[in-house]
User: Fold this.
Amino acid sequence: MRNVALIALGFSLLVMGAAAATFVPFHAVAPNLLLPVVIFLGVTHEVHIVRGAALSFVFGYLFDAFTGSPMGLMTFVLVATFIVSRFAGLRLFLRGPIFQILLTFFVAVLAGGTILALRAIFEKPAPFPAGTVEDHVLTLLIPAATTALVSPLVFAAVRRIESLAVRKREERPATP
Assistant:
């Protein structure tokens, strides 16, 4: 049931982001609302690695389908983000909003750089390349900052879903 609730949360975050983009054209600063969910799953050791990787895969697939990006791009990046955050084991960063913001900003910059690198490797180059190095840096930093700023809210929602499942498990009577 937790998995369904988390997928519903991820789907809702994607819908809210798409709906907000129709009212306010903020494509250049749009946060990746699924990245904090994947980071939370990665740094929480109560989440089994198979479950976290599978959820990250589903989130990435949903993100690719919603945004129209090349299929598999965000799927790969979110699963890799989960695995890296799992092996980093940074439980300290779940303690407060400042640490959550800093961790999410750092991971968002790494994920954005990975996406730019993968696109540079696998996509055909544009006939007239547009943009300077400063444009690419801003393309990485601004969405990473907005993702980091909303991350405490997403962390709180995921923490609530995970705690409800633990509470239900503790309320069940023990079988002899």
User: Anything to note?
Assistant: The mean pLDDT is 85. The first helix runs from residue 2 to 23. The domain at 2-162 is CATH 1.10.1760 (Arp2/3 complex 21 kDa subunit ARPC3). Residues 43 and 90 are 6 Å apart (CA to CA).
